[in-house]
Design brief:
By secondary structure, this protein is an alpha/beta fold. The chain is built from twelve helices and 18 strands. Strands 1, 10, 11, 12, 13, 14, 15, 16, 17 and 18 form a ten-stranded mixed β-sheet that branches. An eight-stranded parallel barrel has the order 2-3-4-5-6-7-8-9. Pyridoxal-5'-phosphate binds near residues 36, 166 and 225.
Length: about 400
């Protein structure tokens, strides 16, 4: 490993988040950890075993390729489900053979699952995803009768793992009415399927924001992504949670969400520049006085957005140091004039804590107007991930 930066995953932070999230869960709903997008940039191959070591036994990915990666690195016989793309027959057969469950949102795919189960000689474990108002994926009302027929005629080839849907933005109160309608539609469809004689092992609808905001959506399984990594889905969700906690007893031995990820690099070189000089390409930054500048080997190639040119901050020796000039492909220059005894090889924190200072992905994204989610998943998979206490 000769990488210019490193990502550390904190086991104690993840443990805390898990404890916090479970304390919020209604009626002890089962916990499913969402690890799509390379575990939101945390790295599937490192994050999954970490989560398993903390007792998580259920994971959700987006596609068959991620499922394959997850199957390779799981240590326990953890349950896996594919919430999105699994398109060719070979992938469906692979999933059935490996006990991986997957979403069904079209009758064509249902038929494909039945055929594959027949060939493999083992039932397909499916989650029926119903359309409730997100209008993205999900079986439409008009397709449901057909699906019921298909399922009933092939009962021996299918295991009904779940009945599910996904909300259209539970992280914003602006969507309140839409979410309530979705929940109503889901409840109605759930009854309809039950009356038709179908029983599902799990009913699941909630993502992080719904877990934090709408207890009635928890049912018996929740799918948590962003929050388990220590990020609130939005500032609004965080405020809403704290407002509702006012007057309640704080939970013993558990704090609210703590960030799992810390991304750091090192000072590559230092130079002193006189006043009135332009720094780096072009003329976007000119020194005002004699300044000390450090080169840090992290650039937009590594997911440090070019939008952070003259805006971003990093930490050096516990102090905030601003990015000066344009973010380059492989490096940035930061002003360290105010950092005493700064030297080559000093640790530079791009996201996370250093001494008492901290840089949040959230503040990072406020600056460049990119969502938490997007910044995280853009962290290249080549940066090494290691677990720390
Ligand atoms: C991504 C995703 C989740 C998790 O969402 P978070 O907001 O990160 O908790 C849950 N369900 C589905 C279907 C998803 O695609």
């Amino acid at each position: 490993m000769f990488q210019s930066s490193i990502i550390e995953l904190s086991k104690s932070a993840f443990k805390n988040n898990l404890k916090f999230l479970k304390s919020v869960l209604h009626n002890g709903a089962e916990y499913c950890s969402v690890i799509k997008g390379n575990a939101y940039g945390h790295g599937i191959n490192v994050f999954l075993p970490l989560a398993e070591s903390c007792g998580v036994r259920h994971f959700a990915v987006f596609d068959a390729d991620e499922a394959l990666r997850a199957v390779k690195c799981r240590c326990e016989k953890s349950d896996l489900m594919i919430m999105g793309a699994i398109d060719d027959a070979a992938a469906v057969e692979w999933a059935i053979e490996n006990n991986v469950s997957f979403y069904i949102f079209e009758n064509q795919r249902l038929q494909c699952a039945i055929d594959a189960a027949e060939r493999v000689g083992k039932p397909a474990r499916i989650h029926l995803e119903v359309e409730t108002g997100l209008n993205r994926m999900g079986l439409q009302d008009t397709q449901i009768d057909n699906a019921i027929d298909l399922i009933k005629h092939n009962a021996d080839k299918l295991e009904l793992e779940g009945l599910c849907t996904h909300y259209a933005g539970a992280e914003s109160i602006a969507n309140y009415v839409r979410i309530q309608k979705q929940l109503e539609t889901y409840t109605h469809l759930s009854k309809r399927l039950k009356l038709a004689g179908l029983t599902f092992k799990h009913h699941h609808t909630a993502c992080s924001a719904a877990v934090l905001r709408y207890p009635e959506t928890h049912m018996d399984l929740v799918r948590v992504g962003i929050a388990q990594y220590g990020f609130w889905p939005t500032k609004e969700t965080e405020m809403d949670y704290h407002l509702r906690q006012r007057g309640e007893q704080p939970k013993p031995n558990v704090s609210v969400l703590r960030r799992v990820l810390r991304w750091s690099s090192r000072v590559m070189s230092i130079k002193n520049v006189g006043p009135g000089e332009f720094i780096g390409y072009g003329n976007s930054y000119m020194t005002e006085k004699k300044q000390k500048l450090a080169a840090v080997p992290v650039g937009y190639f590594h997911g440090f957005s070019r939008g952070l040119s003259n805006l971003g901050m990093v930490l050096v020796r516990g102090r905030r140091a601003p990015v000066v000039g344009l973010v380059n492909m492989n490096m940035v220059m930061v002003d360290v004039s105010h950092v005493p005894e700064v030297g080559k090889g000093d640790e530079v924190v791009i996201i996370g804590k250093q001494k008492k200072a901290q840089i949040d992905v959230a503040s990072f994204s406020d600056l460049s107007r990119v969502l938490n989610y997007e910044i995280l998943v853009r962290l290249p998979s080549e940066i090494p991930r290691v677990v720390v206490r």
